[in-house]
Amino acid sequence: MKSDLFSKAISDRNRVKFLYGFNEVVLEPYYIAFNKTGKKVIYGRISSTNEIKMFEYEKIMNIKVLEFNKFSPIIPIMSFN
């Protein structure tokens, strides 16, 4: 169920809101993967920051897709001199 919600949010470029531990997180989801210990995780950028963070699926609760809140992924542009 979580994978379906996150996959749809990633493909539609929707932000998601969820509880992670006791903190509420608004995330721009980028991709789903497995970490080094084999746990399923999602990577994304926390809204209003430039930091990409990883969140473990088992600690995520109360997921809400913010359908009317779209985002454009930030792609770092490097200058080659």
Short description:
With 81 residues, the chain is mainly β.
Model description:
The chain is globular, with a radius of gyration of 13 Å. The protein starts with a helix and ends in an 11-residue tail after the last strand. 14% of the residues lie in helices and 52% in strands. The chain is built from one helix and five strands. The model has no long low-confidence stretch (mean pLDDT 87).
Order of helices and strands: HEEEEE
* Share of residues in helices: 10-25%
**Arithmetic mean of pLDDT:** 87
Question: Can you summarize the main beta sheet?
Answer: 5 strands, antiparallel
* Uncertain stretches of 5 or more adjacent residues: none
Q: Major sheet: order of its strands?
A: 4-3-2-1-5
DSSP summary: helix tally:
1
- Rg from alpha-carbon coordinates: 13 Å
Overall geometry: globular
By DSSP, the count of extended strands is 5
Alpha-beta classification: mainly beta
Cα-to-Cα separation, first versus last residue: 47 Å
Q: How much strand?
A: over 45%
